[in-house]
Amino acid sequence: KLIYPLHFRLKHVLQAVCGLEAVVLRSFGPEGGQVLFTRDTGQAMLSRSGTRILTALRLEHPLARMVVECVWKHSTVTGDGSKTFILLLASLLRMIHTMACKEPNVSHTYNSREAAKAATARCLADELLAFALEEMDDLIAIGVVPYGFCDLWEDFTAETQSPAHTNNHGVQKLLASFFHTRLGQIHCDYISNLACQLLRHLKFKKDQPFLALQFVNDNFPALHTPVSGFPISCSRLIEGQVIHRDFAMPCARTDQQPVKAVVFTGYLQPQLFSAGDVLEVGCGNHMIAENSRKEKSIVEFSAWSERSLECVIANLQSLGVSVLLSAVKQSAAVMALAAQAEMCVVECISEDELSLFAQLSGTTPVSDCWIIETVNVATLTFCRPILLGVHRYVHVAFHDLEERVMVRPSSLVVCGPGEGQTDQYACAFQDAIRMLLTTCKPVGMTEATISKGTLQSQRSISLHTDDRSNKIVYNSFQQRVLVPSCVIPAGGTFEFLLNHIQSRVMSFIPNNSHAFNLLYKQEHNISLIQDHADMSSKIFMSDLGLESVSCKYELLLAVLQCVTSLLRVDTVLCTHTLLSGYIHLHIHTHRHTHTQYIYLYHIYI
């Protein structure tokens, strides 16, 4: 059978999510355990990462796979909250299921009880998502942010800091809380301090933490080196950059200062044939003359390419270049001439590493070997081999030039007992950077929210007659919404404060109408918030750890969007062959072994 449908009801969605909830529940929180996976090859894997646990499952249920995809997309952006995502999703679906069952089961609009439940559940999910998109950022700004700590990056990049101040810094405490849940309590302080050192070394001269975080996130594959067979406490920072290739042509001049290097993206020697070209060889009297002409042209081209290569090497010598970094494997002639010129050659370097080298050195890679200028030449402090574990790599360090925006470029060496654990430690590092990136983004910092906030402030001003009150209300909105890097104590503080402010708002709204602007009429609310604002420093110094307000906000939105998508699925069409282009109405497709799933959504007006 080519295509067969699977019809899903509300209880089927809940059952699929509850199955995932049971998997991650025991590994949830700082005291949660690890999950042991075994592969068909006998290889075992221990992990506490929610994303890694969920993506390692062999899921047959199409809705469960759809949920895992939503979790993966969320964690890719924020780096955190995958297990909380599942737990919150399951709890929300249970609540919607209970409320849908209390509604009238059959009406004139629907011909069955299950159809009425499904419609009620979809309506509830849509209303929750609409409320979150329109009002939740304001609730967080009024009821959560005043209890938080918003000067997260103050004095973070100071050159001289005492160890006590470093350990109590907001960024370090936020990272320690993150690594505590991801890697356990034993190594969380060491790894968080190492991450803080990396960010301080990679700081920009304009002292903007967001730029440094974005730089680390974009270049993390080239910025870190995994080393297996050592404890995680051996992880460290190395000055400069580690290029994950060995010398193809080493020489003894690399320790002399300064060392000049050039990056090539192509071949130094002109190529007669490119990939895919065909050399036609014939026989017979009528082909002798043609073959003789081709042989002569090939010999002439080879001689010309050798002379061209000699000119390129001579040009490099005149510029004082002693290191050649290449994205491709060079010819034997290049290696021979480089050896005669006492030049080092490093071949087959990845695009990510060459891009990082260009950024750190402030140079431009060479695309045309006939045009090599001083802007293509990088000045290095040294270029030498380095042994990390059982692998030998190329280690370079950069001169402190004015053109470079980085202060102290450094690379991260991540150690672990085994290959799988080392990879998990590295992923935890990158997820921590993504979490900090999300933390730096202000809650509700979008054009729509800003325009909505301006409109609300104007409306609230029209309700007051005192100019001073108007100014307080408007400034309060600006300070609460347009604030980045806000963190609060972990352990349920965000959930408690959000529930508290939501209950207070509902008490001011008659008949549960969505007139959120009435909150701004209560001047005592503003004064109450300002009275409690000075408590943030005391709460910040607590031992509960810290968590990001922006990450919590993004988590709630992602869960509500996932609920809406799940409840809109009516039928799943399963096919054992890939469908051609005649079906254009599917929204999501998943491939598992030889089965493709097509989700048909319920669409209504």
UniProtKB/TrEMBL annotation:
Protein name from the UniProt record: Bardet-Biedl syndrome 10
Pfam families: Cpn60_TCP1
Biological processes, Gene Ontology terms: chaperone-mediated protein complex assembly
GO molecular function, one term: ATP binding
Domain of life assignment: Eukaryota
Annotated coiled-coil segments of the chain: none
